[in-house]
Structure formats: C-alpha cells, structure tokens
Amino acid sequence: KIPISIMADTDASQPTLSQDSKTESTPPQDQALLLTKKGQKFQTPTPGDADRVFYESLYKQKPSSIMAQNFVVEYGLLPDEEHDKLYEIYIDRKRNGGGSSSPGK
User: Fold this and answer.
1) CB contact at 8 A, 5 and 19
2) How far apart, in Å, are the Cα atoms of 42 and each of 45, 60, 77, 89, 96?
3) Sign of CA dihedral 94, 69, 80, 74
4) What DSSP line would sit under the chain, residue for residue?
5) How far apart are CA 4 and CA 23, in angstroms?
6) pLDDT digits (tens, 9 = 90+) for 28-65
7) Taking the CA of residue 14 as centre, how many other CA atoms within 13 Å lie in the half-sphere pointing to its CB?
8) Can you tell me the mean pLDDT for 65-76?
9) What is the pTM for the complete model shown?
10) CA nearest 72: which of 28, 38, 34?
11) pLDDT confidence bin for 23, thresholds 50/70/90
12) How deeply is 76 buried, as exposed, middle or buried, from its count of CB atoms within 10 A (0-12, 13-18, 19+)?
C-alpha cells in the first residue's frame, strides 16, 4: 500500500499523508514487559479474539490437546498457578522433541 498525498484544499494545520510517512505502527519499546509468564511468546489476545475463544474452549473441552496447550501457554491465557503446571508439561514436550498429537504410521 502506498499512502496518497492529500493536497487539494487542505489547511496547513491538518496533517497530510505523503510517500515518506510510515504506514505501519511500530510496537512499543516495553512490549517485552507485557509478556509476564514463563514460556509466553505473544501478547495475550483480547477476550473477543476468535483464536482465543477457539483455543480456550478447546482446552476446556479437551485439556490433553497439544494444540490447545501450546496456544494457552504461548499466549499466557491461564491463571498463574495453572499456567506454571502446564508450562512444565509444555517444556518437557519441547525438550523431548514431541508436540505432535497424531499417531505414528
């Protein structure tokens, strides 16, 4: 996407878009402070986020789901005590090269 310059009938006090203005916002410098739990890789999504709703409900229905476990750990969705217990399972699985819930052929 290329920003379009707005030049017609603009007031000098109003901002205009130009080719050299940034189109993407940069993440805050203190983003690392938002990742507060062990193993958390991403910011916790908002409660209405579709992925969060899916994985939370999957985790509630099937706590043994590796896919759901990975998501809730990496996004820090669980309360601290439950997160710490699941993080140990998560890290053991990563160390042992596991992570696939599909049976071998």
Assistant:
1) yes
2) 8, 21, 10, 19, 23
3) positive
4) --PPP--TT--TTS----TTS--SPPPPTTHHHH--STT--SPPPPTT-HHHHHHHHHHHH-TT-HHHHHHHHHTT-S-HHHHHHHHHHHHHHHHTT----SPP-
5) 11
6) 555 555 778 999 999 999 999 999 999 999 999 999 99
7) 9
8) 96
9) 0.62
10) 38
11) very low
12) buried
| Structure tokens that stand for 72 in this block | 């809730």
Q: Give the tokens for residue 5.
A: 């310059």
Measured at the alpha carbon of residue 42, what is the angle toward residues 62 and 53, in degrees to the nearest 5? 40
Which has the closest alpha carbon to 83: 26, 51, 44, 29? 44
**What distance in Å separates the CA atoms of residue 77 and residue 8, rounded to the nearest whole number?**
49
List CB contacts of 98: < 8 A, sequence separation 6 or more.
Answer: 66
Question: What is the average pLDDT value for the chain, to the nearest integer?
Answer: 78
Contacts of 47 (CB under 8 A, 6+ apart): 53
